[in-house]
Design a protein that fits this description.
Length: 628
């Protein structure tokens, strides 16, 4: 669903013009000077045909003298110079502030994206969001710059020319020459909404094509490994065909409208020659006035054509501003809904009390009556089947999803009563995917540094604890190595270890590792965990993993199934209990054979592993979809 269509209550999207209006209101003098300059330039342009007409009358009456010709030429030069200067000033100011508007809107978009919940980005594609920031904003810039120029220039030039033609020359000829202009409002009424609609369709198609490109480039390794280049090419061509078809629908309509406006101007020109010639022959109009009329119609041809183009621009800008306003009006992520603890500084104690949670709009509890307590500096291990609520718990601690009040506490304070910024500063979170930015290794590890210039020694220390320091030292540029988009130049295990080093560098009192050792071998895993054990850190750790070797040293281990704790205890206690954990440990340790004659107990254990890995697929899909 595109942003422009995301209106849950079903009402029509509101106008986005206040976005531009607010900026103009903040910079009134710049726009006042720009409008007055353009208006003055356009008005002065309407004086020149009168001066030329005066010259023609003197010539026709044989009263033209050299001094008079010089005087009229100087006036034309003076008026022309002032007109050009004022026009330049007005266009410069509108172009300058059009660029500033572009910067401001993109800045607003980025700030908004940072405050939107994670679920928003699962509902809206990357291509769609990029289309907002690039195409839509550029259309608004054209309206803020060219649109204002064209509108003011057209209105004042047409107004001044009509005043001279009607009140200073011949009203009847003015009516004949300007009559075709009267159909322009009718054309605007007809074409305007249709142009806006087709512009919105084109922008939406552009977003879908951008998303297809982003996915193909981002997944180029997968595409090549499957030999699916022809399939992806066909997919892209489908999006491109749709884009071209939408654009051509827009262009055809715009071209018809753009042609009708100059056609009306040309019709007025022909009518003026016919009727004006008649008036001159019958001595009811001077030759100079007829020349002036023709010059006025020639002068009006460009602004009339520009007014047609301006309408196209304004209709496109209206559609783009509506889309931008819809995005900027999207509900931000959870805000502090009550008094918050001032200057909260966590020691790392985490507690859950009968935590029960279900995603909005669903009927299944993802987590049910979960309770645990971790003292500062201790480690909690969490294992369980897919869809058992492990990652959801991490999201609740970070308030990426809002937990119920009175269910999750940090140092005895309800996480709902802690300011979001303070809460997230207190927690360092490593995802399984280990997302990295397309910059240097040092910048990625030092991502949490507030001033953007991380201390190299501190970065190197974090890399050592993350078990990636030796490999970084072998790179030609070491920590300055650029790793490409999303760390494409690193292996999966290297990316995970850089992400772990980033977590260490943050020095947060609570660390959450969400299956973030899955891409490293067991020796590297032991090395990293050993580094953490020798670190003598006071940080509390929550280790979520499918690999039990990653949690066996934890002070307490929770085994989740269907959102409930089915077993809890230390590694030794759980092995002695001989339940789900012990059986899974035996399977992962290779103690269960694969013989076809395996005993019923062993078959049951193998079935248990399968249950732990694939149980409740519907619940898994529900969790993933709602988390999105």
């Amino acid at each position: 669903m595109s942003a422009s269509q995301s209106h849950p209550t079903g009402e029509q999207p509101r106008s986005g013009w206040p976005i531009l209006g607010r900026y103009i209101a903040e910079n009134p003098w710049a726009y006042v000077v720009a409008v007055l300059s353009i208006a003055g330039s356009s008005t002065l342009a309407a004086i020149i045909p009168r001066l030329v007409g005066r010259l023609a009358d003197l010539f026709a009456s044989h009263h033209l003298e050299l001094a008079e010709a010089h005087r009229l030429a100087l006036w034309v030069a003076l008026v022309g110079s002032v007109r050009v200067t004022l026009g330049w000033l007005g266009r410069y100011l509108t172009a300058q502030h059009g660029r500033i508007v572009t910067f401001r809107i993109r800045e607003m978009l980025f700030e908004k994206w940072e405050r939107l919940p994670v679920a928003y980005f699962h509902r809206h594609s990357t291509g769609e969001l990029l289309s907002h920031a690039l195409s839509d904003v550029d259309v608004v810039r054209q309206a803020a710059a060219m649109g204002i120029n064209t509108a003011v220039n057209g209105v004042f030039m047409v107004g001044a020319a009509m005043w001279f033609m009607v009140f200073r020359m011949n009203a009847r000829l003015a009516f004949v020459g300007l009559f075709p202009m009267f159909v322009i409002p009718v054309m605007i009424r007809y074409f305007g909404p249709r142009i806006k609609s087709r512009s919105a369709e084109f922008q939406a198609a552009l977003g879908r094509m951008s998303q297809a490109v982003e996915e193909t480039v981002g997944g180029i390794r997968t595409v090549k490994s499957f030999g699916n280049e022809p399939v992806e090419l066909t997919r892209f061509e489908t999006h491109l065909d749709e884009l071209v078809e939408r654009k051509m629908r827009f262009v055809r309509l715009s071209a018809v409208f753009g042609a009708l406006v100059p056609f009306a101007s040309a019709l007025g020109f022909v009518s003026t020659i016919w009727y004006g010639g008649y008036l001159v022959i019958h001595h009811q109009l001077s030759l100079g006035d007829l020349v002036g009329f023709l010059l006025y119609l020639t002068l009006l041809k460009q602004p009339l054509e520009q007014l047609g183009n301006m309408l196209n621009t304004l209709q496109r800008a209206s559609a783009s501003l509506t889309r931008l306003d819809t995005l900027l009006s999207a509900q931000p992520e959870s805000v502090d809904d009550g008094p918050v603890v001032a200057e909260f500084a966590s020691l790392g104690a985490v507690e859950a009390k009968n935590l029960t949670f279900r995603y909005p709009g669903t009927t299944r509890d993802v987590i049910q009556e979960l309770s645990f307590s971790i003292r500062p500096g201790k480690t909690l291990g969490i294992v369980g089947s897919i869809g058992s609520g492990k990652t959801t718990l991490a999201h609740l601690l970070l308030r990426l999803q809002e937990p119920p009040r009175g269910s999750l506490f940090l140092d005895g304070v309800d996480v709902r009563d802690i300011a979001l910024q303070d809460l997230r500063r207190a927690i360092a979170y490593v995802l399984q995917t280990g997302f990295l930015f397309s910059t240097s290794i040092q910048a990625n590890i030092g991502f949490s540094d507030d001033n953007g210039s991380p201390d190299p020694a501190r970065v190197a220390h974090a890399a050592r604890l993350g078990g990636i320091d030796e490999e970084i030292e072998r790179f030609p540029d070491r920590y300055a190595t650029e790793i490409g988009e999303r760390g494409v130049r690193l292996s999966g295990g290297q990316k995970q270890r850089v992400a772990i080093a980033r977590m260490v560098h943050k020095e947060a009192p609570v660390r959450i590792l969400d299956d973030s050792l899955s891409a490293v071998d067991t020796n590297t895993e032991r090395k990293i965990l050993g580094n953490f054990a020798r670190e003598n850190s006071s940080a509390t750790a929550i280790v979520i993993s499918h690999r039990l070797s990653a949690v066996c040293e934890a002070g307490e281990i929770l085994v989740l199934d269907g959102g409930r704790v089915v077993e809890r205890g230390t590694h030794a206690e759980l092995l002695a209990y001989d339940g789900v954990y012990a059986r899974l440990w035996a399977l992962q340790a290779g103690d269960v054979g694969q013989s076809d004659t395996a005993s019923p107990d062993l078959v049951e254990q193998e079935g248990l592993l399968e249950i732990l890995r694939t149980e409740d697929e519907e619940a898994v899909r529900s969790e993933v979809e709602e988390d999105a």
